[in-house]
Write a structure and sequence with these properties.
The protein is of the alpha/beta class. The chain has two domains: 1-34, no CATH class; 79-177, Barwin-like endoglucanases, CATH 2.40.40.10. It is built from seven helices and six strands; from the N terminus they run ααααααββββαββ. The protein has a six-stranded mixed barrel. Strand 3 and strand 4 (128-134) form a beta hairpin. Helix 5 (46-55) crosses helix 6 (64-76).
């Protein structure tokens, strides 16, 4: 918003006083950033609302993969889906940094799923954004479907009970952000 205000002021005062770089209209990159501003009304959709706030810095600095996930979700869309959520952790033999099916190490970035495409992003209101970088037992998907969920998602946590108090978060709505759309 500040750049747009300076552009307007530059137009009123004349380019010579503020310099061309301040008076020039924002390019495509600046327009994309301007879509996520403090003054823009927040969307009603829970994912879009959180992504907007995350990208404008309300939750502090984002890691690059988080920025990519939120940005892609805003640009390409995120599909709400009922998922059965469980957790895995070092006490089960999955230490921080241990390689997942994708080759990435276990961390707070990692989600495991069989029926969601590897590399897609998953956002849960109770947890935040994760990326599907691992897989698990096929039987988990059958259990998830018996519980009324479309699929199963397993989230890595640094120790048991950090996310939900036990291994099971139950059926929750997750927003799935595909890599291709």
């Amino acid at each position: 918003m500040k750049a747009r205000r300076l552009w307007w002021i530059g137009g009123v005062l004349g380019v010579g006083l503020l310099g061309y770089h301040l008076a020039a209209p924002p390019g495509p990159a600046r327009r994309a950033e301007a879509a996520v501003t403090e003054t823009a009304p927040l969307p009603q959709d829970p994912f879009r609302r959180c992504a907007t706030k995350a990208l404008r810095g309300d939750y502090g600095p984002l890691q690059e993969w988080q920025r990519v996930g939120y940005q892609r979700g805003l640009e390409k869309g995120a599909t709400p889906l009922p998922v059965w959520v469980t957790t895995y952790y070092p006490e089960e033999g999955f230490a921080r940094g241990e390689a997942t099916a994708s080759g990435y190490g276990c961390s707070e970035r990692v989600a495991a799923a069989n029926l969601l495409p590897r590399w897609c992003f998953v956002w849960l209101p109770s947890v935040g954004i994760r990326q599907v970088l691992d897989c698990g037992a096929r039987a988990n998907d059958r259990v998830a479907q018996r519980r009324g969920a479309a699929c199963w998602v397993d989230l890595w946590e640094p120790r048991r009970g950090v996310l939900f108090g036990d291994d099971n978060g139950g059926v929750q709505t997750a927003w799935v952000i595909s890599r291709r759309r």
